[in-house]
Sequence to fold (359 residues):
Amino acid sequence: MNILFVYFRQTIQAENLYIRSLYEEIQRQNPGDTECDIETFWHSSKRYDIVHIQFPEVIFKWRNPSEEGLNALRKRLVQLKRQGTKIVYTRHNAIPHYCADSNKLELYRIVETLCDAIIHLGKFSLQDFNRAYPDNRVTHFVIPHHIYDLCGYTFPSQEESIRQLGLPTGKRIILTFGSYRNEEEQRLVTQAFEQLPIPDKFLLAPGFYNNCFVTRKTPLRNWWRYRTQKRTFQLPEEQARQQHGSISNSCLPYYFSAADIVLIQRKATLNSGNVPMAFFFHKSVAGPQFGNTGEWLRETGNPTFDLTDPSSVVEAVERAFRLQAQGQGERNAAFAREHLNTHTVARATLAAYQELLNP
Fold:
C-alpha cells in the first residue's frame, strides 16, 4: 500500500510522539511506501491508496482556515477520492478544543463527512458520531490509543525523579500533565485538592497556567491573565508546583515517575493521551467518566468521577491512591503492554486500511 500521513514531515521526530511512533511502526510493517507530509497532501500527483488525517487543523498548519481554504479542501478530498484514494480520519476530538470559530468547526465537518473511514479511539466516540450523523455511511473502526513503548523512554525511580525535579520528599504526589485549557479545569483540580483529606498531598501541575499564553500577540493581556489566575488558583508552595511551559520528551519520564497517581483534568474532551501514558508508567489514574477516557478507565478498574459533582472528584482521587497501593498501576501496565502496544495498534490500523481497499 502507498500511505500518506497528513502531518509535519520536518518535526515528526520531536513534536508528537503519538504520530511519530505510529507512523514509524506502520512504515516498518507496510511493504509499500509510507510517507508523512502536508504539502504532499495538497500538491502531489502520486496516487496513494490511503491518506490518513489525524488532526484536521494540521491540514492548515494549525492556522484558522479561510473560506477559500475550506473550498480548496473540499475539492482536494473529492479529487483524491475520484482517484481511488481512501480517506481515513482518526477522531481525536469531537470538535476543536473549546472552539467557537465557525471555519474551524466547518473544517471538522468537511473531514468527517468526506472521509471514507473513521478510526475511533473508543466505543463512546463511535456512538457519539452516530448521534451527530445518524445517516452517515462511513466505515467505522475502533482502535485504541497506543502506548509509547517504542519511544525510548526510561523508567527512573521515584526517588531519582523527585530529586531531578527538585520536589519535596515525603509527599503523596498527584500529577496533572499537559496544558490546562481553561479556568474550569483549574477550578476543578484546585477545589478538589483543597477538599482532599490526605496528609502530605502535593499537586504537580507543570502546565497549570498554559492557557494564559496561547497567543504571543497579546503579551500584556497574557501577563494580566496570568497574574489574575495566580491570585485565584495558587495553592500553598509547600503543597503544589503550578507552572507554565512545555515539558521536553527527555524530562517527561521524571514527571510520571515522580507521581503516585495521575489525575486527568479534562472537562469536555473525547480522549486523553495521558491515560495510556500513565498506564505505561505503572500509575493508577482518576479521570472523568465522560468520553473514551471514562470508557477505558472503567474497563481497566480505575476510578472515574462525575464532572457535575465536586465531591466525586475527591472520592476518585482517594480511591486511586488506595488502588495504587494495591497494585493497580502494575495491572494498568500489564493491560497496556498486552492490548495497547504500538505493534498491535499499527497492525490493526493496517488491517483497517486493507478492509477499506478490499471490502
Notes: The mean pLDDT is 94. The CA atoms of residues 207 and 244 lie 5 Å apart. The longest strand covers residues 86-91.
